Amino acid sequence: MVEKLNKKYSDSQFKDIHDYRVFVATWNVAGKSPPSCLDLEDWLHTSPPADIYVLGFQEIVPLNAGNVLGTEDNGPARKWLALIRKTLNSNPGTRPVTDPLMELDADFDGSMRRKTSFQSMSPSDCDTNSRWGSSESDDETDSPVNMQSFGESFAMEETNNQNGHSRYCLAASKQMVGIFLTVWVKNDLRDNVRDMKVSCVGRGLMGYLGNKGSISISMSLHQTSFCFVCSHLTSGQKDGDELRRNSDVMEILKKTRFPRVHGVKDEKSPQTILDHDRIIWLGDLNYRIALSYGYAKALVEMRDWKALLENDQACSYPFLIDSLRIEQRQGRVFEGWSEGKIYFPPTYKYSYNSDRYAVEDRHPKEKRRTPAWCDRILWYGTGLYQLSYVRGESKFSDHRPVYSVFSAKVESINRSRIRKSMSCSGTRIEVEELLPQ
Where is the composition biased (Polar residues) (predicted)? Predict the structure, then answer.
């Protein structure tokens, strides 16, 4: 009887549709630990603020033998958490929010902005309550207990916040060597977020170590499931490297498995990435530009991003196409996935603390690094609408951060409507027995 009523009251007439803003960012920080003075305000404070923040990092530690084969160094991850927490729970600054399209025009005109993002000084405290864990092989999945747990994170946020009223709570965080993925939600949404799960896939040394690979976090908001995948794929621009990156993606999709949450009997609980309702993939995908070094250098020196991108997107000249789009169009990777149009300059590789690409400052004996859009954000399926897709201008790393804001459709059960319907029909079963917990 209860099962029949559950099915009846899961119909669309008893559901509400909500629109939530989801901020997604990826940043390869080149093995550098953040100083306490690093200011993230310009990066994280959007207008209006997002409901969910999904922040993925690559190379939060140097990818040396000690970090890949030895004990995981989670000190930098704790510092990033402290900085993010401080920024999200502080009052937004008074600087006006810049229109991304205006910034785009400035970039295409060749002018180099001097933004203040990530530069001003401010103290921060490190969180000492986080739990950490890493996958030892590519077919191992972690149980929810190995992530930052809800009970810990919410209590911790309230005690660490000066006025006792945090606006955002840490929902989950996970590190695998240099890859780090963290999810934050608005405090008033925390009771509606559940079924947190994580899965790690190593694709680095020997095909399974964690210097390359992915971290995926699965969660449900109301009745809608989300999956966030943060990856660092095989590097290099030699012949065959694209095939290795394609293989990384296929293995991540194949081997990512989410354990069933203890006590949850829902047979529809997603176990793979593609089982979810809303899916976003972010990271340093390492796909390069299929363009000669000399021609790329000339375009960089002219700051002619617009010509490069128009040709890239219109497919007018095959030798100007970004290799990820080549592989996608050929059906070899990310088939059916979507990516917004790129209206920003290549995000890699920059000289240290500079607005100049490494190709411009290269010493004759140094390896050639053709600029590329390595850092990307893609999504799969329906119910996600991209509102912006831009990059930041921090000089902290040789990569520029990339971020996007999505509007996500989320279903929820309207309890009052069900109660009213049951009251009219004379049903005697307690409504709480029927509603998802």
Answer: 117-135
Predicted model pTM = 0.80
Residue 404's CB: how many other CB atoms inside 10 A?
23
Give the pLDDT confidence of 196-226 residue by residue, as tens digits. 999 999 999 888 899 999 999 999 999 999 9
- Domain residue limits at 356: 20-420
Domain count, the chain: 1
Q: Is the pLDDT of residue 368 over 50?
A: yes
**Weakest-pLDDT range from 63-67, 115-119, 193-197, 360-364:** 115-119
Looking at the domain assignment, is residue 4 inside a domain? no
What CATH number does residue 173 fall under? 3.60.10.10
Q: What is the 3-state secondary structure (H, E, C) of the chain?
A: CHHHHHHHCCCHHHEEEEEEEEEEEEEECCCCCCCCCCCCHHHHCCCCCCCEEEEEEECCCCCCHHHHHCCCCCHHHHHHHHHHHHHHCCCCCCCCCCCHHHHHHHHHCCCCCCCCCCCCCCCCCCCCCCCCCCCCCCCCEECHHHCCCHHHHHHHHHHHCCCCCCCEEEEEEEEECCEEEEEEEEHHHHHHEEEEEEEEEECCHHHCCCCCEEEEEEEEECCEEEEEEEEECCCCCCCCHHHHHHHHHHHHHHHCCCCCCCCCCCCCCCCCHHHCCEEEEEEECCCCECCCHHHHHHHHHHCCHHHHHHHHHHCCCHHHCEHHHHHHHCCCCCCCEECCCCCCCCCECECCCCCCEHHHHCCCCCCCCCCECCEEEEEECCCEEEEEEEECCCCCCCCCCEEEEEEEEEEEECHHHHHHHHHHHCCCCCHHHCCCC
What residues are paired with 389 via a beta bridge?
404
Q: Tell me, yes or no, whether 5 lies in a domain.
A: no
Q: And the tokens for 49?
A: 């603020």
What is the per-residue pLDDT for 292?
73
Which residue is associated with the tokens 């969180």? 127
pLDDT of residue 206: 85
55 domain residue, yes or no = yes
In a domain? residue 434: no
